[in-house]
User: Fold this.
Amino acid sequence: MYRSMMLINGKRVGGASGRFDVIHNPANQEPVAEVAIGEVIDAVKALEAAQCAFPGWASVSPKRRCDLLHDAAEIVRERADRIAELLTVEMGKAIRDSRREVLSAADSLDYFAEEGLRNIGDWISTAETRSIVTKQPVGVISLITPWNYPVELLAWKAGPAIAAGCTAVAKPSSLAPVAATEFVMAINDAGLPPGVLNIVHGSGETVGAELVTNPISRKISFTGETSTGRWIMEAAARHLKRVSLELGGHAPMIVFDDADIDAAASACVRRAFGNMGQVCISVNRVYVADEIAEDFTEKVVRRTLGLRIGDPLDPEVDLGPMVSEAQRRKTREHIEDAVQKGANILCGGRAPEGDLFAKGYYFLPTVLADVDHRMRIMREETFGPVAPIMQFSDDEEAVRLANDTEYGLAAYIYTNSLRRAIRTAERLEAGSVGVNVGSIIDHHAPFGGWKQSGIGRELSHRGLDEYMEIKHIRLGL
Ligand code: NAD
Assistant:
C-alpha cells in the first residue's frame, strides 16, 4: 500500500504521534494509502521551518524563483500519470479529469513563475521628493485546501506564494491528502531550499486551527466551506492576519430564448455533473426561457443518459463515485426535499444498480424539473450531481432568480445577443460570469467570490498580489 509522509524542512517525515490513517477508495472501499497523521506539534515545526527559510527565500532573485517553478512544473508533468492515479483512487474523480487537473496544476506553476518576474512598482516625483512604491513578500503563509480539487487548488496558492518570495505550510483535506502531498514533493524535488514549502496532514480542528492561529503565519489562504471560512476569518482577526477565502458557491445558468440550445445543454451537463457535481463552480440551478424549455430539457436529459458512469480508473468513464457516503446522503436528502415540494425527477435520482456499484458511493446524474426557490436544492450547496431546471418568462425574472442566493462565485449565461449578454453579466452578483462558455477558469484572469463565496482573488496578477505587502519609500532630495 502507498505511504504518504509529510514534508517538513525538506525532510519526509511521519507525525510526532507515529500514527497512520488509512485512505479507502470511494469506488470499492479498498485501502489505497497510509497517511502519516500530523498533530499540532507537527504544524508548529512546519511553521518554524517556514519562518527560518523566509529571509533567505525572500532575497533570492525573482529569476531564480522563476526557474525553480518551471523545473517544478516539468517534474509534475513527468509524474502526472502517477499523481492522477493517486487522486482518482483517493477521491473518485474520473482518471481523465484527474490527469487534466494535474497538468493544469503544472500550468499554474509555469504561469506564476513568469508572473513573479513582473513585480512592478511605482516611481512618483515631486519637486523635493521621490516616492518608490514597491512590493515585498508577506511572510509565512498557511495554505489550507479542500478535497475536491486537491492538486489544482493547492497550485493556485503554492505557485504565487513561492513566486512572491513567501514560504508556506500546506494542509490538504484529510479526505484526500495523498495526491496533494505528491504534488508538493514534486515541487520540492525541483531544488527548493528546505522549509520553503512544507506539507502537514491532520484534522482541520487541530492542525488546521494551529496554522490559522499561530502568530508565525502572516496570512491564511483557504479554500473550503463557507462556515469554515467564517471561523478562519474570526480566528485570524485576533492577529489581524490577512486572509484569502475561496468558499462555497451556488452557480446559476441562464439559458435565454435566443441561445444555441445544443451548446447550452452540453455545457449544462458538463458543468452540473463533472466531478459528480463536487465543484464550487458547478451549475447548481438552471433557468431556461419558457419558449425553449421543452427542447432544452429534453436535450439535457438525453445527454445525461449518455454519460458513462463506472470505475474511475477506466479512461472511457465520465463519472466515478462521490467522495463519501456523507456527500451522497446530502445529495439524496436535497432530491427528496425537492420531490416532496413538487419537483419531478426526469432521470437519475438514485444509485446505479449492479455489482460494479455495490461497494462504491455511486449516484446517477439527476435532472429535476418543476423546481422552485422553496426547495433546499435551489438555496443550499448540494455538492452532488443534480441539475434542477426552472423556467422563466422574462429577463428581469431570470436575473432576480439568479441573484436570489447568499453565494456569488460563478454564473453562466447562454444567449446569442451581445446586448443581453453584457447587460445580464453586469447585473449578476458573482465573481465570474461565463457567456456561452462552460468554464470560467483562466490562469490570466482573477477568480474569487462575492457575497458568502469569499474574499480575495486567485490566479492572474491579482492572485500574486495577495502574497505581497506594499511599501512606500519616500526620499527627500
Ligand atoms: P472544509 O471547509 O470542510 O475543509 C477545507 C479544509 O479546511 C480542509 O483541509 C479541512 O481540514 C480544513 N479545516 C476544517 N476546519 C478547519 C479549521 N477550524 N481551521 C482550519 N482548517 C480547517 O471544505 P471541504 O468539505 O473540504 O470542501 C468542500 C467545500 O469547498 C465546498 O463548500 C466548496 O464549495 C468549497 N470549495 C470552494 C472553492 C472556491 O474556489 N471557492 C473551490 C473548491 C471547493
About this structure: Residues 408 and 415 are 21 Å apart (CA to CA). The chain has 14 helices and 23 strands. The first helix runs from residue 40 to 59. The longest strand covers residues 129-137.
